Amino acid sequence: MDIRYLKTLVTVVEVGSFSKAARALHLTQSAVSQRIKFLEEAYNYSLFDRSAPSLTLTSSGEMVLESAKQILGIQDSLMEKLKRIKDRPRVSLCCTPTFGTVYLPGVLNRFMLESGSPVDLKFLLHSPDQALEGIQNKEFDLAIVEHCAGDNLGRFQTYSLPQDELVFVSSPKLNLPTPNLDLETLLDLCLFARKEGCSSRQLITRGLQEQGRSLDDFSGVITSDDLRLTCQTVLSGGGISFMSRSLVCEYLKTGQMVEHYVEGFPHARCRTVIIEKGRENEPLLRSFARCIFKVMDVPSPI
Question: CA-to-CA distance for 39 and 269, rounded, in angstroms?
Answer without folding.
Answer: 36
